[in-house]
Amino acid sequence: MQEQTILGHPKGLFILFFTELWERFSYYGMRAILVLYLTKETSDTFNPGMGWTSAEALSLYGTYGMMVYFMGIFGGVAADKWLGQKKAVIFGGILIIFGQFALAFESLTMFYSGLALLVCGVGLLKPNISTMVGGLYKQGDGRRDAGFTLFYIGINIGALAAPFLVGTIGEQINWHLGFSLAGFGMILGQLVFVFGKKHLKDVGNLLKHSETESHLASQPLTKVEKDRIIVLLISFLIVIVFWAAYEQAGGLMNLYARDSVDRIVFGYEIPTSWFQSLHALYVVIIGAPMAWLWLRWGRMGKESSAIFKMAVGMIVMSISFLMLMGAVYDASINMLGKAPIYWLFFSYLLHVVAELSISPVALSFITKLAPVKYASIMMGTYFAVTGLGNKAAGMLGVYAQKSGEMTAFAIIAIACLIVGLLLFTLVKKLKVLAHNAEEVV
Ligand code: GLN
Prior knowledge:
The protein is mainly α. The protein has a single domain, classed as MFS general substrate transporter like domains (Growth Hormone, Chain: A), CATH 1.20.1250.20. The chain contains 14 helices and 4 strands. Strands 1-2 form a two-stranded antiparallel ribbon. Strands 3-4 form a two-stranded antiparallel ribbon. Glutamine binds next to loops. The site of glutamine (GLN) has 5 residues, from loops.
């Protein structure tokens, strides 16, 4: 039967695209107001919060961010062993809806129950929907990377819209209404998934349905599969360094933008929080052109393996931190002690060029290399590793408070450079160890 496509990709991709767009809307929407809600005084008559200190709120925020991604491992195990990815996505979506609406109540018990439901829900949904994208493409299908980039653009449309909508309603009208809006976002995602499931018949099912598949599920791993898992684990180490650098944007860079960057443009002072949407905006704008460039690059016969792209990404990330060092230097010689805003715009643009060379590429790479029966577990491990990167980012931020931004940025730039250069030298070896997984047709 002829495959039904939209923009040259299987129709199912767009079901996953919109489901994940709304899930991320819900995730980033809630995240945008969480700390603000926690730290708002209880005595506020208009829109009271919880009255926590900043340190308490940031600590909970960090723990929540870590746990959400760590739960991905259990979400992956649940899908591979018992549910299959499709059911895991549905259960995850339901838990998220209940979680967001639990936050709509003004009670501490409901608040913590809501967070716990969100952690379990995202842990079930996020890795498994990502693995399903890979399932839409056969081994060797050249559209896979581009498919993941499209999916990634969907993620960022959700991430871009959420702080404006959920943030504005939560902050200016009522926090609980904001959390409910995040819940409604997930309801939309769930509806897209449930009604679009007919386009996902062959993906995300539990490997045990037919006899041959159950035979496959009980086979020990082959040498090729083991080698490929080693390559994946090595790439996960790189990913920690990348996210540790990238996630500075929400922490240290956020404070730096607030205190040490001249944000006045044409007489108007750009609010610091707007910079939080800049990454997502850049992804939406340059995501497709970049995927197209990589495709052309590959078609010209040049090296375009995932490892190579990740190496390029790490070098670009290193350059972006050199730019931030430029900003710190500029600020030090400026009379007001502030750096010009263009450093931030350019540096964040490079962050996103790096992100697009690493993050969707890693997702795609995992679906190429992981043995089918461990596909979701490997994806879940990847997200857990990104959680570690987030944690490391926070620790670097704290370090910078003591030793200054220049030192912290320099450490990050050097770390990214070393990892990037190391990867360049290893591209060929890792491709051999992966048994040329990317070229199997
Ligand atoms: N920003 C991406 C998302 O929300 C990647 C997150 C991650 O890999 N930790 O999906």
